[in-house]
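Project channel, design review

CF: Before we commit to the Gordonia paraffinivorans NBRC 108238 constructs, I'd like one complete example in the thread so the newer folks can see what an input/output pair looks like. Taking SnoaL-like domain-containing protein.
RD: sounds good, go ahead.
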Amino acid sequence: MTTTATPVLAQWFEYMDSEDPDRVLGMISDDFVMSVQFSKGAGQSAEFIGDRAGLVGYLEQREKSVLVHHIDIGVTAGGCEMVLGRTTRDGAFEASFTATAQIDEKGLVRRLLIARTPEVSFD
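CF: and here is what came back for SnoaL-like domain-containing protein:
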């Protein structure tokens, strides 16, 4: 990852790429709400939604330390961090993703919206 414009999301994806992605649970506010739109391509997708329990469920079904998130563009505006990036598996492109996080006054993630697809590459 190569962005300092979005420090919270940079940390989030660093944790998600690690052996201990559950550390993101310490980054969320008490009123956290999320939606992760996850496409595997060819019209096959799933949505993971909810609060802390929804995030726990999402974390439980993920592969650990397999994908690497690369933030290519990041901006902060109006209390939100927004990124465009890609994931790689063994160095090869897997999917593009966007993520937007609303950050509270304590620096915690209050709202999180992520969408990913292998169908579009921004190369």
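RD: helpful, thanks. Strands lie at 28-41, 44-50, 67-77, 80-89, 92-103, 109-117.
CF: The two ends are 16 Å apart (CA to CA).
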